[in-house]
Design brief:
The protein has 499 residues and is of the alpha/beta class. Helix content is 43%, strand content 14%.
Length: 499
């Protein structure tokens, strides 16, 4: 029975793996809780809410303790101040590094730079730290190698660690030789995330992509200001990516300047046309129009997050999906907000959602303030019973609704939510023009009573007024509201921003 309890405890703590505050609290309960929490905390010790810039960082102290006395003495002779008194691995309660399955070069470099400002001494410490992790990690799952200065694949035990690598995060400032070294060892990376910070030839990255046997997730983010290109920074990457379309399941791609290069533009279109098994599509495809969108079919698509897209183009993608979409997120602050045919296009969009996406759970929804739209909104809520998170945005930028019209429409929308939304709905976001009178909001919250607590995010400052805040606090205390927050329009429209 004790073993069963311990197994259950581990599963409970495992659920908290992304909640650093709760995990650190678990350490303090008792020895059993501590023993089950430490392996989870140390899988990825770089991802928690820790002040890595703190001069008394215990992470640095623990890593240093694993170094041999000879290496410590050498580092001290170089003028590097090590923790005193010195700690030995034998004096530690756990073999912490043996639990670690990740290396984050950026965080390691941060905690090292706090201890010494000399570049050479930082280089020496980095080298010893990387060697330790290559030796002590039971298996390496995640590597963030941005800003790396060491060819870690030459370190002892590197082959054994790197061949198990599951996820790589990197950038284009790194020399191709580093990627050639990884390509020699790493053949089974399933997730590659690249930040294009310094556009140049990408032979090394292209080679790394080429040798992967099971690449399921690829992410590319342009992260630089426009420059005068003398070459195409995308062609090699897209050429290799096209060869992986039969195994690629998740694509997040933001190529801000691809329309400058005809060859790469065609390659990107070919990649998208061949991704028949794609489950996740995220990106900015403003370079394509309705004609190109009609050529794309994603029968297994579950997640669609697109920036800079018209409602009609989004409706085309939804029409050509296989009915498995669970998330549809478009940003109202982009093109969709300025469309001339907003009213007509929103009706088409709403209908496509409830006709083609019965399983939808997360949705950005646009509609005008008209009777037809309210009817279709009610149809959507009745059909899409799995809906959990809903972003509502309304009205064309060029149409100025009266305050009375906005309040009347807000009241109608809340009535529809009460009458037709399922109990699965836990989060509502109201973008810009949505406003509710104090009485309307109180009536809605009172009618919501008895359902699961609701989280609400809004971009309107009206709810910061004292009367509204008092009402909201009352319903928070009653458990009707979980969270009610005012945020910037950027955060409200970003469905990945957590309330």
């Amino acid at each position: 029975m004790f073993k069963l309890n311990e197994d259950i405890l581990f599963l409970v703590i495992e659920k908290l793996k992304d909640d650093s505050k709760s995990l650190f609290s678990c350490l303090m309960v008792n020895k059993l809780w501590c023993e089950n929490t430490i392996p989870i905390l140390w899988r990825n010790p770089w991802s928690y809410d820790i002040d890595y810039y703190n001069d008394n960082n215990y992470l640095f102290t623990i890593i240093i303790s694993y170094l041999s006395d000879d290496i410590k003495e050498f580092l001290i002779r170089q003028g590097i101040q090590l923790p005193s008194p010195s700690i030995s691995p034998q004096s530690l309660s756990f073999d912490y590094l043996s639990f670690c399955k990740s290396i984050n070069i950026i965080i390691i470099n941060i905690i090292i730079s706090i201890k010494t400002s000399l570049i050479y001494n930082q280089f020496l410490l980095q080298q010893e730290f990387y060697k330790l992790f290559m030796k002590k990690c039971s298996e390496l799952i995640y590597l963030n190698m941005k800003s790396i200065k060491h060819q870690i694949y030459y370190f002892p035990d590197a082959n054994n660690r790197l061949e198990t690598l599951y996820e790589l995060e990197c950038d284009t400032s790194i020399d191709s030789s580093y990627y050639y070294g990884l390509a020699r060892i790493c053949k089974c990376i399933q997730r590659i995330i690249i930040f294009n910070v310094n556009p140049k030839d990408n032979h090394g990255i292209a080679k790394l992509i080429e040798v992967q046997k099971n690449l399921k997730y690829f992410e590319w983010n342009d992260d630089f200001k426009n420059i005068d290109f003398t070459y195409d920074p995308y062609e090699e990457i897209l050429f290799e990516l096209e060869k992986k379309t039969n195994i690629l399941k998740h694509l997040k791609i933001f190529l801000h300047y691809v329309d400058n290069f005809e060859r790469s533009l065609l390659l990107l279109q070919n990649v998208l046309m061949k991704l028949n098994g794609l489950k996740t599509l995220m990106g900015d495809f403003s370079i394509f129009g309705e004609h190109e969108m009609k050529m794309l079919y994603f029968n297994n698509l579950e997640i669609l997050h697109i920036d800079c897209i018209t409602l009609i183009e989004a409706s085309i993608i939804i029409e050509n999906s296989g009915g498995k979409l669970k998330e549809v997120s478009i940003k109202p602050y982009d093109f969709v907000y300025y469309e001339d045919n907003f009213s007509e296009d929103t009706l088409i969009f709403i209908r496509k959602i409830y006709q083609k996406c019965p399983l939808i759970e997360v949705l950005s929804l646009a509609f005008s303030l008209s009777k037809d739209h309210f009817i279709e909104f009610e149809n959507l809520l009745k059909i899409c019973q799995n809906l959990k998170s809903l972003l509502l945005f309304t009205s064309n930028f060029h149409i100025r609704e009266t305050e009375e019209k906005i309040l009347e429409s807000g009241e109608e929308i809340l009535k529809i939510l009460i009458s037709s939304a399922s109990n699965n709905l836990r989060e509502i976001r109201f973008f810009n023009n949505f406003k509710f009178s104090l009485g309307t909001l109180e009536n809605f919250l009172e009618n919501w009573r008895g359902r699961p607590a609701l989280s609400i995010l809004t971009s309107s400052t009206i709810y910061e007024e004292e009367d509204y805040k008092n009402l909201i606090d009352d319903y928070k205390n009653d458990g009707v509201i979980k969270t009610f927050k005012y945020e910037s329009v950027i955060n409200v429209e970003n469905m990945n921003f957590r309330i």
